[in-house]
Write a structure and sequence with these properties.
The protein is of the alpha+beta class. Among the domains are: 52 residues, no CATH class; 101 residues, Band 7 domain (Tetrahydropterin Synthase, Chain A), CATH 3.30.479; 51 residues. It contains 8 helices and 10 strands. A hairpin with a 5-residue loop joins strand 9 and strand 10. It is elongated, with a radius of gyration of 61 Å. The protein starts with a helix and ends with a strand. One of its GO terms (cellular component) is side of membrane.
Length: 320
């Protein structure tokens, strides 16, 4: 009798141990347990720790509540200013309602991944290239809002979205490099011109100050000589003021007498004004005087003298 009781007790103990082994579950601190009994959701979500379910009847699903880091594959698209880019991002999300995450969507991780890719393509088409490169904080907030709106109904909360990298074509990279180089060159020229302007103003003030005190120019000349001589070189450059050269040039030129002004010719009398119908004045006639004498040989003049006859020479020569 005792042996039968002992064997029955041993059988019950073994059955209880098997039952406990089949029904016992352990939920970790970062997990929540969702129980389905005959396929129906039980209202209470199991907290972390040791818990029991009905074997064969209940099914316990553990849902991880940790923040999930999901990389979004690189998406290629065309920006609003017609530039082809490839953008990849990363999504940080977590489950806030374990029951909703299992019931509302089949696979919440796959759903969040697909929604992130679609939203990333939409953001690329709505943004300019400059926004993708320099204004990423605004784009990250826009992506987070686009993902969080449908995900909140799945029991999933989007923690943050970050754009990791923006890949550009090589031609666009070279164009941007040339643009940046030209902008740097422009800024350098503007800064150099500003420095020259400030230096010219200071030099003009120094020149006015030295003009008021001529000894200051001599002191400045001596300081320059001392600065050059301190470098231990054999050549000494001595600057000469320009005023001294001009003084020597004026001293070497001979004095010139002032030229006397030439007398101006008398002005001719103005012709008289003529009215309509008047004749122009005639030149005055010369007064009658003695007729000019006629030259010899002319009509009315004395006869021309005859040439002398040549004397005959006994030798046959003629002399004048």
């Amino acid at each position: 009798m005792v042996e039968e009781l002992l064997s029955a007790a041993a059988g019950v103990g073994i059955a209880a141990a098997v039952y406990v082994g089949a029904a016992a579950r352990v939920v970790k601190q970062y997990e929540r347990g969702v129980v389905f009994r005959f396929g129906r959701l039980m209202g209470e979500v199991r907290r972390p720790g040791f818990t029991m379910i009905v074997p064969v009847v209940d099914r316990l699903h553990k849902v991880n509540l940790q923040i999930v880091t999901m990389p979004v594959p690189a998406q290629e698209g065309i920006t609003r200013d017609n530039v082809t880019v490839r953008v990849d991002a990363v999504v940080y999300f977590k489950v806030v309602d374990a029951a909703e995450a299992l019931v509302r969507v089949e696979d919440y991780k796959f759903a969040v991944s697909q929604m992130a890719q679609t939203s990333l393509r939409s953001i690329i088409g709505k943004s300019d290239l400059d926004d993708l490169l320099s204004n990423r904080e605004k784009l990250n907030q826009g992506l987070e809002l686009m993902l969080d709106s449908p995900a909140i109904g799945w029991g999933v909360q989007i923690d943050r979205v970050e754009i990791k990298d923006v890949s550009l074509p090589e031609t666009m990279k070279r164009s941007m490099a040339r643009q940046a180089e030209a902008d740097r060159e422009r800024r350098a020229r503007v800064i150099n011109a500003d420095a020259e302007l400030q230096a010219s103003k200071k030099l003009a003030e120094a020149a006015h100050q030295m003009a008021d005190a001529p000894s200051a120019l001599q002191l400045r000349l001596l300081q320059t000589v001392m600065a050059v001589a301190a470098e231990k070189n054999s050549t000494l450059v001595l600057p000469i003021p320009v005023e001294l050269l001009r003084f020597l040039e004026r001293a070497g030129q001979p004095p010139t007498a002032p030229a006397s002004p030439l007398p101006e010719p008398p002005a001719a009398p103005a012709p008289p004004l003529l009215r309509d119908g008047d004749l122009p004045p005639m030149a005055p006639e010369a007064p009658p005087g003695p007729a000019p004498e006629a030259l010899p040989g002319e009509p009315g003049g004395p006869a021309a003298p005859e040439p002398p006859l040549a004397a005959a020479d006994p030798e046959g020569r003629q002399e004048p």
